[in-house]
Amino acid sequence: NQLIRILLEAKLRRSDSLARLISQRPPRVELVERNILPEISEQDRLEARLVIGNKLDRRLSLRPTAEDLENKHILLKQTPDEIEREKEEKKKTLLRKLSFRPTIDELKERKIIKFNDYVEVTEAELYDRKADKPWTRLTPRDKAAIRKELNEFKSTEMAVHEDSKHLTRWFSLVFLWVFSILFITVIVVAYV
Q: pTM value?
């Protein structure tokens, strides 16, 4: 009760002070002279309002229609109740589809599951998978024998045309290298 009385007294004091301030307010002419109120005639003010009104009309005419907003999915066509009902229907259908899922064999037959999706992977034993390099175990005598045999083969079996002899140095080096690797592996396999 006392709180209400205090609030009413404060309200009365506020209204009294507001009335006092309004009574002390200087006239409009003085406010215009002190540049507190703008000096605009009534006609100028009406013209400004007309210009602003025209701008607003132009903006509103450029605004997209409700149908455009619905097509862009900005404005919803349905009410919130319809949207909620549609969500519930989707949930029901999806749950029904999940309860009648096809087996893995059916999915394999229809080629929906890929091979790597259903293959079981088991642990394998770790071992060195590097290739064996038998030519690293050759002695200098073995290498010389291979070189000699290869050179003999090339000199007897590989005739070079006269017009292309100027190209043979590089070709023979590459060919020599390839054949030497081949023969080395053949000989190593034979020794092993």
A: 0.27
